[in-house]
Request: fold
Amino acid sequence: MEFSPANNIVQRCLQGMALESKGEPEAAGALFLQAWEAATNDFEKFLAAHYVARHQENVSDKLKWAETSLQFALEVHDPAVRSALPSLYRTIAQCFANVNDPVNAQKNEELARSFGENPNDPGPFYHGTKADLQVGDLLTAGRHSNYERDLQMNHIYFTALVNGAGLAAALAKGDGQERVYIVEPTGLFENDPNVTDKKFPGNLTRSYRSEAPLKIIGEVTDWAKQASEDIQKWKDKLANNKGAIIN
Reply:
C-alpha cells in the first residue's frame, strides 16, 4: 500500500508526535494506543505498534511491542516497509542488550545489517517539478533547493510514489505547470537522509537521491492533487522548518 499523510492511522501518529514535541508524552502515548486499536491492516498495525513501543518505560514491554511491530511489518511485502526493517531490528537488538541478552542482541543487529546500505526498490520512479522538459532530457544535481534559499543541491531527488512527486511539483519554485516525470536513475542512488528514520521508521515515502543524472522516460498526467489550502499548509510548514537540509 502507498504511504499517505491522509491515512487515519498516519494522521494519529503525526498528532502523537506533535504532542511529544510539546512535552506531553502521556497524551502522545494515549494517541498511539488509539492508533493501534483503530488499525485495520498489517501496515497500520506495524506503524502504530512502533510508536506504542517507543512509549514503554519497561524494557520487556518495549520489546514486546517492537516485536509486534516487526511481526506485522514482515507481512507487508512492500519496499517502503522493507526499508523500516533495519530500524525495527536495531530497536529489538537494543532491548535485548538492555536485558543482558547479548546473543539475541547480536542476532538482531546482524539482521539489521543484512539489508545493506543501498535501497532495493524496483520503481517506477518519479520527479515532480514545474520545469517543461522532454523525454530523453537529463535531470542533474547542482540546482538550488526549493526549500532553502541559496542552497545548491549536491544530489537530484526522486520518489517511487507518484502522489509524493505530485506534491513536490506543487511545492516547486516557479509559475509553470506542475509536471510529474517518470525517471530512470543512471547511477547508484540512496535513501534520502532528510526523511529516512526521522519521523517514521525507514523510508516510508520511498524518497531517494542520487549524484548521477535522472533520465526522463515519460510523464504522468494523473495523480491525487491536494487542495490549495493543504498546499499552503505544506509551504508554511517548510518555511517554519528549523532543521538543516542534509546535502
Q: What stands out?
A: Strands lie at 125-129, 138-139, 156-159, 179-185, 190-191, 207-210, 214-220. The chain has a mean pLDDT of 89. The longest helix spans residues 59-73.
